[in-house]
Every structure is written in C-alpha cells, then in structure tokens.
Amino acid sequence: METRRQARGRILGRAVPWLVLWALLAGPAAAEEFTGRVVGVTDGDTIKVLHANQSETVRLLGVDAPEKRQAYGDRARRFTAELAFDRTVTVHAAGRDRYGRLLGEVVLPNGRSLNQELLRAGYAWWFRKYSRDSRLARLEEEARQDRRGLWADAAPQAPWEYRISGRR
Fold this sequence. Notes:
This protein is an alpha+beta fold.
C-alpha cells in the first residue's frame, strides 16, 4: 500500500512538468512590463509588438474597437496605426485572453496611453464587461458628448453586438 508521502510525490512528479510547460507557453506573465516595436496593426484594438525577437499579439485592455467590416472599423485601425505602427511602445501586461493574446495597456513614446487615445478620439467603446477603469469610462462619455469618431453616428453598434449578430 502506498503511503501519503509516496502519493504526494507521485502527484507532484506528474504536475511539475505540466506547470513548467504552461509557464513556458504562457509567455509574458500578468503584471509584466516590456518595451518593443509595433510591427503590425490587426485592428483598432489589437497590435503586434516585437518582444524577445518574436511578434507578440497584444489586445488593448479595457477597450473594444469596431470590427474590421463594421462601421468605423477601418478608421479605428488606421488611427491605431498612425499612433503606434513602427514605434517603440511599452506594454503593461495584465494577463491573457481566451485566444492567447496578451492583454495590456500600451504606452506610446510620448507617454500617452494608446488605450485611452482610442477612446478619446471616439474610435472605441469602454469594454465595461472586462474593465472597471473609471478613466476609460469618462473618456468614452466625453467622446459621446462631443460626438467624436463613431459617436457622430446616430446609433453606433457596439462590437460585441456586431459579433453576436454574426456579421463578422
């Protein structure tokens, strides 16, 4: 019969390799900060940053920009590209989403937050489902009141509603 100590050792012996593998595959950990050059802009809220000689997909935390084929989707992507493409940015990582993308705040060379600039210009929604950041909420509200960007439309459709409608 196996003792408790032997059983614990057997369980740990099986778990440790999986934990090591997970840590290696997870990449930058939550709350990590790194600097890299933006090498791609997928859409308004997703960029590719060169980190440790590899392209890392970064999803802007707390914001949700229109989808590519949605109204203002191309404008949001172009706005993000104008501010960030081929520039060195600092990423404050906060974890990963269910697609494996790094979630984070992206700080531009001038010290401003790309996440906040998208909201300020009216090219994204505050992603209230995943963010409690009151600064982002305020920036969205100001853009709405001033009818900037997508808020110039009478009734802009939120990206999460657009995705549910299956019009991707």
